[in-house]
Known about the structure:
single chain, 213 residues, alpha/beta, globular, transferase
Amino acid sequence: MKSILITVEGPIGIGKTSLSRELSRAFHLELLEEIVYENPFLGKFYENIAEWSFQLEMFFLCNRYKQLQDIHSKYLSQGTSVVADYNIFKNTIFAKRTLSSDNLPKYLKIYDILTEDLPQAHLVIYLTASIDTVMKRIAMRDRDVERSMDVAYMENVIADYNEFMQAFEKHHPDTPVIKFDCDDLDFVHRPEDLRYVLDTIAPRIAELRADRM
């Protein structure tokens, strides 16, 4: 059986890592979690986006590139399927929002070079919610670096995600996307919501695995 790569995406605080862990357990997938809070620029970024955005985005890009290289060599190329709590395309969503007009073209050139040969997702799970829900969940987890997060910035990130995903589905019709509105779902605290999400995803995973036998 050939391997599959599933990625879970959505704005900060939406539950990507929690759902990825549940998918890993339910469907016997290797779990890849992104490196976030090890980023030395994160706290500075939330305090001054313009000053620290390029350093932040380059750190994330290089770390995600290395993670995906490793996950390919250690698991995907060996026939082991993986679920990741991010998709590498998120780099462009945030970069286009935060980088200056001088730095963005340089960044996108580096992004294109690094990601050219990286493994691509066979299934994208997209979690979305309103700004109220996102901010409440960020507040609930109460992480130091997120306490100074600007609401207007998060509103823009949510809008950017929705716009990007619409374009992604249009330009990548062969990559299935399953979308969940997390205003109405809390799969972290309500077992019935988690069961609904897993039951919705299960048939598509079964199809992908059958296609790659």
